[in-house]
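Researcher: We plan to redesign the surface later, but first we want a full-length starting point. Tokens attached.
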């Protein structure tokens, strides 16, 4: 999409400011193979791999780079931060995560508890992503019979637009009781728990106070993990902003933080101090 989905809401401003924006095409989207939806390590690896690909296409790009992402991209950006802890790339300047700081099980519970059928399709895509990482996982072991029938038709054999089919059932009809005890879903959620492993570079966590998906309390939990691990991290919460309005509502702070990284300034932290 030439608009990069966000139009004026984000990314466009960075081009106007003179930045080169590399929009990662995650594996399995428009290509052979499966997409590992909401798997921050798979998606993060795709982002990292897009950087040398971009330089091969445009050789005069700056060597220095950072990652910024929203929602799934926010979680992906935290995957980049984790992978960069062992990459030791001196040109990696840091991570901006918008509405992405949450344990995946918290985010899923928020989707289900919101009781908004329009979000059911995201739950179905998450099941698809889990199976992409763990091929042994059987979706029928976690989805109800009604949801699984839609899953086979709309997700495995359909496309993202087909996710609207899930709005026809209630949120509580999506997953079987005890789904959190499923072996493969437990592994997938543990794999997607930001802050439990080392990260590389400074981090900016931005969240909306009224975000029903990546909630303020979930963001606080990830923030504390980063602080306890000694990560240089700044966390800003914007009261009254929901999941999407956060992108534009936090733009001034995004731009200032990113400009400071390229200027070589020390990254700020607002972790609580202890005696």
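Model: Full-length starting sequence:
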């Amino acid at each position: 999409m030439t608009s990069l989905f966000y139009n004026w809401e984000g990314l466009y401003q960075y081009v106007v400011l003179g930045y080169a924006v590399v929009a990662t095409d995650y594996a399995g989207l428009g290509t052979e193979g499966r997409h590992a939806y909401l798997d921050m390590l798979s998606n993060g690896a795709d982002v990292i791999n897009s950087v040398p690909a971009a330089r091969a296409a445009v050789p005069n790009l700056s060597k220095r780079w950072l990652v910024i992402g929203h929602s799934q991209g926010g979680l992906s950006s935290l995957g980049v931060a984790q992978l960069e802890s062992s990459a030791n790339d001196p040109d990696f300047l840091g991570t901006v995560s918008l509405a992405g700081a949450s344990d995946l099980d918290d985010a899923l519970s928020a989707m289900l508890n919101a009781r908004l059928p329009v979000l059911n399709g995201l739950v179905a895509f998450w099941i698809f992503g889990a199976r992409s990482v763990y091929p042994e996982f059987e979706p029928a072991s976690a989805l109800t019979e009604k949801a699984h029938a839609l899953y086979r038709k709309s997700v495995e054999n359909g496309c993202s637009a087909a996710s609207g089919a899930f709005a026809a059932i209630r949120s509580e009809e999506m997953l079987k009781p005890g789904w959190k005890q499923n072996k493969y879903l437990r592994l997938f959620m543990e794999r997607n728990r930001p802050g439990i492993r080392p990260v590389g570079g400074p981090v900016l966590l931005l969240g909306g106070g009224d975000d029903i998906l990546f909630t303020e309390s979930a963001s606080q939990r990830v923030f504390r993990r980063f602080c306890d691990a000694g990560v240089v991290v700044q966390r800003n919460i914007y009261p009254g902003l929901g999941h999407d309005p956060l992108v534009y509502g936090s733009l001034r702070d995004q731009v200032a933080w990113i400009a400071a990284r390229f200027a070589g300034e020390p990254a700020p932290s607002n972790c609580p101090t202890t005696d």
